[in-house]
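User: Batch of two.

Assistant: Item 1 of 2:
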Amino acid sequence: MPFMPPKEYKTEAKPIWCPGCGDFAVLAALYQAFSALDIDPTKTVIVSGIGCSSRLPVFVKSYGFHTVHGRTLPVATGIKLANPELTVLAMGGDGDAFAIGGGHIPHAARRNVDITYIVMDNFIYGLTKGQTSPTTGSQEGTGHGFKLTPTNPHGQWEEPLNPLAMLLTYGASFVARGYSAKPKPLAEVYQAAIRHKGFSFVQVLSPCVVFNKTYDELDAAIIPLEGKHDTSDFRAAMDLAWDTQTEHLGIFYQKERPTLTDRMAAIGTKSNPEQRAGDLSKLIAKYR
């Protein structure tokens, strides 16, 4: 029996997303995953930045940290290093993650911080009325979403970022994609991501029904991997990531390697025994 049924992970706060927003399913899948994994909410922290998606921690019965724009990963990293026993998740959207917060992703990935980073990608800035985001589709038809936005009224000529290819290149040890219209497999991806020891990245296609409704477009492009792909094959994972005509769903890549916490613990064993014991008096005395 699960530690708690999914509904017990809900707080009294009601989600305030627009009706039909994909983030509702993202949240529901998270409740299901937490229940299936027997997640203890008193030992769980969800960190978020800015945007529609970043409101999510308020709706989950756990500890939460709604930090500043783009700084989700540094805060989540600090929490995990301070208390490695915690289950730490980071939440964001395509703007918060890949624009102002984009510089933090390669370092969290290469350090292999043991956190799960879930990015709800709707290919637009939804909270601030529909401006172009780093993943908005281009005028040439690359990517998803409409081509005219308040910040690009004559069309989007920039090529959109490829989040999965980015994370694979940066060295993330777990890379996956889910879809808000497929909540059951999305919950299964969450479970695998949270169980994975290391930096787990999950891109969730989560359409904005007000400024960038892409359900029909995405439905036509979806192909679940469903065991057809070797998740240890990096080159195959990269080939799938660069197949921009198809939205493959599932785990693209997974590899076990030492986490940042593991490496920090190993460094600690090499330090001065007196310092490890917490006695810094002799060290301090040198500078008096």
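Item 2 of 2:
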Amino acid sequence: MADAVLSCSGLDKTYLDGSRSVKVLQGVELALARSERVAIVGRSGSGKSTLLNLLGGLDVPTAGEVRVSNKSLSRMGERARSQWRNAQLGFVFQFHHLLPEFTALEGVAMPMRIGGVAKNIAQERAAMLLNSVGLGDRMHHKPAALSGGERQRVAIARALSNQPSCVLMDEPTGNLDPESAELVLNLIESIDWGGTAFIVVTHDPKIAEKMDRQLLLKSGQLAELPRAVV
């Protein structure tokens, strides 16, 4: 897919376990279009988080290539890769990873500030994003004063702060109670994020079913699952 916002080809990842080589991923191929939402499912230990880390440039493949907005991550130095990752990708993990000393507003603005955006502009956009995820009245609270679901919504707003090409989510509802998980699910499904694509690694069938495509990671490779007939 020539206009893919994120793609990989021939992606392999092998780890050494003592004297033994363990191949986690083998020849993975993926292309994600603008605004597309894809779920990656599979049993625990199948390599889903490993794949997400490779796609996000947080880890280096043994072989193959990852391209984000038509630039190869493997051909960049570490500093250039970090800058490109901050500009083009957003991340949401099972645990929110919010810095405890910063308010929601400051945390959401941080990726923009790192990218060189002026403080007033960054905070204006951060406030808009927090309003869009239903936290307009909580933006001056620090993480300790927020519920688990609120923290995860802050993390989603933070992931979207630089208007990235793609957001990568690793079990975004895995640490939430059912009510909070439902709120996050509705958020992912209902809000128009301006062309941003999503990859969601999940065990939650409710999330997977809401995505445009479901991909199964099994034996180190991705296979597309047929959509259920309603």
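Residues 125 and 228 are 38 Å apart (CA to CA).
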